[in-house]
């Protein structure tokens, strides 16, 4: 390694991380102002628009819980949870992004899950078991569907 290259590398990494943090903050502000500008706020539970659900890739055993260090996943083909469902007093079943053979993974948002989503802005649930495994997914206030 050349003398002085360590400092340049640190400076570069600092600038990249700083840019990511600023970009993330700007995206959150833009998302908040976008929902305010479009008037999508649901006055029943104060959650703007439909929320995206995020699927974790990790396959889990029948009683295994998601490893918090595993954050890899996708929004691809995941359902949007609309404000009417969120403010509902009834649970609802949704299709997960994939299945096996002719069976589709599904997940249930119970009344308790919907209450947690309204009160805390986030909930993590699990799919049904197919081929001996299930998946975790999360729904977080701030992840809005277009």
Helix-strand category: alpha+beta
User: N-to-C SSE series?
Assistant: HEEEEEHEEHEE
The residue-averaged pLDDT reads 75
- Principal-axis shape: globular
Domains, number: 2
Helix content bin:
25-40%
Whole-Å distance between the termini?
A: 48 Å
Q: Which stretches of 5+ consecutive residues score pLDDT under 50?
A: 16-45
Q: Could you please describe the fold and organization of this structure?
A:
- This protein is an alpha+beta fold and 146 residues long.
- It has two domains: 39 residues; 101 residues.
- 33% of the residues lie in helices and 30% in strands.
- The chain is built from three helices and nine strands, in the order αβββββαββαββ.
- Strands 3, 4, 5, 8 and 9 form a five-stranded antiparallel sheet that branches. Strands 1-2 form a two-stranded antiparallel sheet.
- A hairpin with a 2-residue loop joins β6 and β7.
- The longest helix is centred in the N-terminal third of the chain and has 34 residues.
- It is globular, with a radius of gyration of 19 Å.
- The N and C termini lie far apart (48 Å).
Topology of this protein?
Blueprint: H1 5-38, E1 41-42, E2 47-48, E3 51-56, E4 73-74, E5 80-81, H2 83-86, E6 92-100, E7 103-109, H3 111-120, E8 122-126, E9 136-144
Antiparallel strand pairs: 1-2, 3-4, 3-5, 3-9, 6-7, 8-9
Fill in the keyword field for this structure.
146 residues, 2 domains, two-stranded antiparallel sheet, globular, 9 strands, alpha+beta, 33% helix, 3 helices
What is the gist of this entry?
Helices cover 33% and strands 30% of the residues. It is α+β, with helices and mostly antiparallel strands. It has 2 domains: 1-39; 44-144.
């Amino acid at each position: 390694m050349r003398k002085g290259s360590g400092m340049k590398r640190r400076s570069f990494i600092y600038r990249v991380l700083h840019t990511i943090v600023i970009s993330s903050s700007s995206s959150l502000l833009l998302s908040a102002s976008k929902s305010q500008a479009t008037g999508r706020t649901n006055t029943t539970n104060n959650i703007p628009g439909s929320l995206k659900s995020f699927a974790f890739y990790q396959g889990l055993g029948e009683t295994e819980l998601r490893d918090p260090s595993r954050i890899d996943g996708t929004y691809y083909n995941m359902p949007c949870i609309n404000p009417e469902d969120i403010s509902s007093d009834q649970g609802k079943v949704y299709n997960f992004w994939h299945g096996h053979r002719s069976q589709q993974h599904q997940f249930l948002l119970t009344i308790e899950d919907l209450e947690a989503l309204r009160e805390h802005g986030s909930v993590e649930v699990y799919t049904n078991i197919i081929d001996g495994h299930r998946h975790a997914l999360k729904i977080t206030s701030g992840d809005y569907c277009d």
